[in-house]
Amino acid sequence: MQQICTKIVASGKHLLDEDEIEKELASRRGRLQGREE
User: Fold this and answer.
1) Number of domains composing the chain
2) Which of 2, 4, 26 shows the shortest CA–CA distance to 13?
3) Per-residue pLDDT tens over the stretch 3-28
């Protein structure tokens, strides 16, 4: 896992913090619920 994180940071991208992860999960869950209806 640490190697993956290191590669991501080295590529110039930032890692998501806890709040950003929660927002991303909520967004994806919302899209999934929209498809089921």
Assistant:
1) 1
2) 4
3) 999 999 999 999 999 999 999 999 99
